[in-house]
Design goal:
eight-stranded mixed β-sheet, 5 helices
């Protein structure tokens, strides 16, 4: 089985269309006309608009570069995206401009019904290159793009849901319900780690640097060096997760 960007987005579209209560989507940059599925061709705006007629859709995007071009996305682009998506029933949009100078929110996460989550590096954007990479890996201009996305089920999903909930509430003051922990969906014990700078969000004044701590611990405990290859999309079915804070 070959799973790459193209197939990853198909899994994401399927999850969006199967949502029963809500969809929470956060990203560095998104384009309303980004093609999430080629057969038939469907754009991000179209799939979210359809979902908004059935469930609550919340989209959280970085506010954009506070400096002049050529850095992208520009703040005007981010605002334009919000105007386009917000005109659809059930789609709520917010810009998160709480950042350090010359830094941005580079997360790409999606939570569906607090039961399924996607975490990875695939943007709903063509800035730089197309993310719709296939298993053939044909040459693309200006550059080939290959990144990873993980589909998560089980108790681990609540950590992703809580993180989105924290950011959304900090930016909008819209209080979201506490996510309920899902039942075990597999036998893998895992943990979500993250980086949140200090003095950005009121609820995390000291930030969260467990991602760095995890890397340092892994390096210190390494017994041998190894090289591994991973596919572009993996599936993680967790039996238990550690708390987010």
């Amino acid at each position: 089985m070959c799973i790459d960007g193209e197939e990853s987005f198909e899994a994401i579209v399927e999850a969006i269309r199967g949502a029963r209560s809500h969809i929470h989507l956060a990203g560095w940059h998104m384009e309303a006309d980004f093609v999430v599925s080629k057969d038939p061709e469907v754009t991000l705006e179209e799939v979210l608009a359809e979902a908004g007629r059935r469930v609550e859709v919340r989209v959280l995007v970085w506010g954009g570069a506070p400096v002049p071009p050529p850095l992208r996305p520009r703040r005007g682009e981010a605002k334009e995206l919000g105007e386009r998506l917000s005109r659809h029933k059930g789609v709520h949009f917010a810009l998160d401009s709480k950042e350090r100078l010359l830094n941005c929110h580079h997360e790409k996460i999606m939570v569906v019904d607090d039961d399924l989550a996607f975490v990875g590096g695939l943007d709903f954007s063509t800035v730089g290159a197309s993310r719709l990479d296939s298993c053939d890996h044909p040459p693309q201009k200006p550059m080939g793009w290959h990144d990873a996305t993980v589909e998560i089920r089980g108790p681990l999903v609540v950590d992703v849901a809580e993180h989105f909930r924290m950011r959304w509430q900090e930016v909008t003051d819209d209080r979201l319900p506490q996510p309920e922990t899902s039942k075990p969906a597999g036998d893998i014990e895992a943990q979500i780690v993250r980086t949140v700078p200090e003095k950005i969000y009121d609820s995390l004044p000291r930030g969260d640097f467990r991602l760095l701590a995890t890397y340092v611990r892994a390096l210190r405990e390494a017994k041998r060096s190894s090289i591994s290859r991973t596919s572009s999309c993996g599936r993680l079915r967790s039996s238990r997760s550690s708390p987010t804070s």
